[in-house]
Amino acid sequence: MHMPRALSSTDARDLAEQVKAWGRELGFQQVGITDTDLQAHEARLLGWLEGGRHGEMDYMARHGTKRARPAELVPGTLRVISVRMDYQPPDARESWSVIGDPSLGFVSRYALGRDYHKLMRNRLQKLASRIEEVIGQFGYRAFVDSAPVLEKALAEKAGLGWIGKHTNLLSREAGSWYFLGELYTDLPLPADPPGDAHCGTCTACIDVCPTRAIVAPYQLDARLCISYLTIELKNAIPEPLRPLIGNRIYGCDDCQLVCPWNRFAGLAAEPDFRARHGLDAPDLVDLFNWDEKTFLNRTEGSAIRRIGHERWLRNVAVALGNGPSRPEAIAALSTRMDHPSGLVREHAGWALTRLGAR
Hints:
Layout: H1 9-25, E1 30-34, H2 39-50, H3 59-62, H4 70-73, E2 79-86, H5 95-99, E3 106-107, H6 116-135, E4 140-143, H7 151-157, E5 162-163, E6 169-170, E7 178-185, H8 204-208, E8 214-216, E9 219-220, H9 226-232, H10 242-245, E10 248-250, H11 254-257, H12 284-288, H13 292-298, H14 308-321, H15 327-335, H16 342-354
Parallel strand pairs: 3-10
Antiparallel strand pairs: 1-2, 2-7, 4-7, 5-6, 8-9
């Protein structure tokens, strides 16, 4: 990082206020600033990794302590500017009505619009450029889910909220339907007070989890989490967990849907986060009949594309197997029994057995 111009305490305080104002102008609903001390979170991370609760997410362990030590990841980092952007699509079909209809597929609401990574990183870059216009060159790097960064811990320390019992970030004013991003910087800005916890005695998220992945308050075993099983897991979904997944084909929002604080969540102001291609309430048989070209076309610019067509078929097969025994579902599943992928064949076969068709 560059050596920034020395800032007096007054200059630093004024700049911090400007940064927050510019961030809001750029479409972030909240901006906070924190130092880089994540010792308490590092201990929790290491315990989680030692317990194997990250499953196949090897990248969580790959970078050693860099994830919890911002100055090891980006030398010279003194402060982290943490931002949030609301993503709840204003035009999407009501979630429980989709989850309650076994002929439909449920896609986590964050993935209904355009992929947020590039959009938020571009906005963070614009924020850095604004700062540069005022103070000259300074050291920074922008991150949106793109590096070993403990984003929820940093957001909590920056006063954006607290990490709830479901391990998502929560805010009294905004619930949890938002993306997070970070600007690591060498500017000695004043840090904001951290967020306070307000979960109290509520256990709604723990009680609703279909696979009991929230094994204790503030403890998630990713290996049981439907978001992990449908997005991160590359191999077969463990058979005992398949019936519990229901019709959730990409991610799971149950713990957020029941959270009382989400009564206060805002809708996305960003047009790119609006639901696309009818994926807010899609017919499962239609989805299972997509060939790879259709899959790539319908998921262009979407986070869904990262799982690829093979895992998409795996997920939809499980959902079909959990639904009613319809002739069109059986016909669709049967057409995939000679699919070149063993993963697809195995899950389609499982679904056919569940529907009494084998």
